[in-house]
Design brief:
This protein has seven helices and seven strands; from the N terminus they run βααβαββαβαβαβα. The chain is an alpha/beta fold. Strands 4-3-2-1-5-6-7 form a seven-stranded mixed beta sheet.
Length: 178
C-alpha cells in the first residue's frame, strides 16, 4: 500500500487537558515525535496545533498564562509544528477559548477541497467538528479521530472512518526530562 499524504490537526486545549488527566502535561514534550507517531509510514504534509492566544491584561494570572504559552510556542517551533491562534475570552474571572474550532474546521475543509492530503488526523474530542468531518469525507478524504482511551468521544468515533485511542504508555516516551 502506497503511503498517504497526512495532515494532523491538534485541538491544543483539548489535547492539554487530556494529557493533564494522565499527568503528562509538562514541557518539554516532543511534538515532532508525536506527529511522526501519528503519521506512521505515511508522508506528513503538515502538523498544526490550534490554541487560544493568551494576551496579557496586566494581571499576574494573564502574565503567567502568557509566559507558559510562549514556552509552548517555542517547543512547537523547535519540533517543526505549526500553530494557529484562536483567542481567549475572559468572562466572570475565567478564560474561554474562542475561534479554535472554526480554524480546525476551515483547515480540514481546505485540506479536503484543495486536495492537500488523503488523510486528516484529528486530535480533538470536540463533536462540534462533525459537519466539517462529514464534508471532508464526502470529498473522499479519510478522517481519523485520535482520542484518549480514558475519555473517548463516541460522537467522533462514530463519525470518523478511523479511530485511534492513545494510552499513557503511548505518550510517556514523548515527555522528556526537564
Amino acid at each position: 500500500m502506497q503511503p498517504e499524504r497526512v495532515i494532523i490537526l491538534i485541538d491544543g486545549s483539548n489535547f492539554y487537558f487530556k494529557l493533564r488527566d494522565i499527568d503528562l502535561h509538562r514541557l518539554p514534550f516532543d511534538f515532532g515525535a508525536f506527529c511522526r507517531l501519528l503519521a506512521g509510514k505515511n508522508t506528513l504534509v503538515r502538523c498544526v496545533y490550534h490554541v487560544g492566544e493568551v494576551r496579557t491584561d496586566g494581571t499576574e494570572k494573564s502574565q503567567q498564562l502568557y509566559n507558559k504559552q510562549q514556552k509552548l510556542m517555542a517547543q512547537l517551533r523547535k519540533h517543526g509544528v505549526y500553530y494557529q491562534f484562536g483567542y481567549l475570552l475572559k468572562s466572570k474571572g475565567a478564560y474561554h477559548e474562542k475561534g479554535v474550532d472554526v480554524h480546525l474546521a476551515v483547515d480540514m475543509l481546505v485540506a479536503a477541497y484543495e486536495n492537500l492530503c488523503e488523510r486528516i488526523i484529528l486530535v480533538s474530542s470536540d463533536s462540534d467538528l462533525t459537519p466539517a468531518i462529514v464534508k471532508a469525507q464526502e470529498k473522499g478524504k479519510i478522517v481519523e479521530y485520535v482520542g484518549f482511551s480514558h475519555k473517548i468521544s463516541l460522537a467522533l468515533a462514530r463519525t470518523c472512518q478511523d479511530t485511534r485511542l492513545l494510552k499513557k504508555d503511548d505518550l510517556l516516551p514523548l515527555v522528556q526530562a526537564a
